[in-house]
Design goal:
five-stranded mixed β-sheet, 15 strands
Amino acid sequence: MQRITFYSILLLLSFHITSVAQKSAFEIQFKVAGLADVPLIVAYRYAGNQYIKDTIQVNSKGVAIYRGNEALPPGVYLAVFPTMNNNYFEFLVKEQFFTLETDKEDFNKNMKVVNSKENKIFYDDLRYVNDKRVLSEEYNNRLKSFKDNSDSSTYYKNQLKKIDEDVKSFRMNTITSQPDLMYSKIMNAFREIEVPEPKRDQFGKALDTNFQYNYYKQHYWDYVDFKEEGILRSPVYSSKLENYFEKIVMGIPDSIIKECDYVLSKSKVNNEIFKYTLVTLVNKYAQSKIMGMDAVYVHLVNEYYAKGAAYWMKSDTVSLYKMIDRANKTGPLIIGKKAPNLVLEDTTLKVPKSMYDIKSKYTILVFWDPDCGHCKTEIPQLANMYDTLQRMGASVYAVSTISYEEMDKWTSFIKANNLNWTNVADPFFRHNPNFRTVYDISSTPVIYVLDQDKIIRGKRIGVDQLQDFISKYEEYLKAKAKQ
């Protein structure tokens, strides 16, 4: 009899631990009749796009096994066959061990699912909807041969309506009978909000003209389960998020900020959904070309990144620092803030000129460079309209970015283009902090519109937009005064 020593016990334990460690965290078998010795690309959907996850090989028997040591994130995946012109079939990953068996002649119609309730329900739904789609196409073709309002036309229209109702009913039955399925949650998130009619007075006029908008907005996220990470790897969440901020939320920074906080608070129940939501919103408003949206970016960075909520950034301190630094520079310059004062030298370099000393209804603050290509076009254009702007109550405080060596270029440009406004510069870099830092000037020209209290009302707009901007701001003030 072989004696079991302490050393042999350690070997057995080591073997057991190694075996456990090497056990796959997921295994999906693909069996495709009619295919042999070809590659299979496993891809997945994420935020409306498709990404390659891995490539495996279909063997001589039409079988491919996809396995790994880390569980697959939940969502909608694709099995893509490059040798078939990239034809593919979709499948769901929630369970981590299952088999999909089909035939290359018709992936969906011939699909057999083993050990996956998610995919069984998914393919039942696909086949049902496809059968209804075929019938719908047949009825639509028949409908074309009849005149509108004829009995036959009415019949087929009613049939088409019934098909639509049947599909909705079929899917609602899945949603209500299988509420814990990821697929049910994805389908549920696609549901439209049914908005009731507003209450009306005795003459039929709506008592609240904004009722339907407010109801729709209030209930917009009712069918979205933020706990279900699988909605990220489907087209539904990204499209709903984009639609909400593009079409539902009012395009005013304060309103957008409020709604960003609202959606982010709902998404916190799942780390990945929270991460996607925050990153998407930050990028959206960091890259926005709409004036004033930098206020949203500043809020999101200060409230979430600077306070450590963006947990994924903890290892990327350089990027985090850059984001916070940008927000810190932009924060004092958002619309509605008082513009930092500038006291710079005029062309004599002897007389300091304070921007706050300008007493006019509007101050147009311009940063420019005589060597800048755009400035050579924009600044003379501004000079040509200066008389009109003065009649509108505007003065110009023009800051040149020249150094002392470029003094002659600056003064020559002023004379050549009759720039008869307040011209200033800091050629010796005497002022600390420098205006370039204070106003975050990295390129020229940059134009701000300030009101009589030097509050920023417009920023980074073109010379050709100035008159229209001031006119519309005047209209806004008049409308606000009447409220």
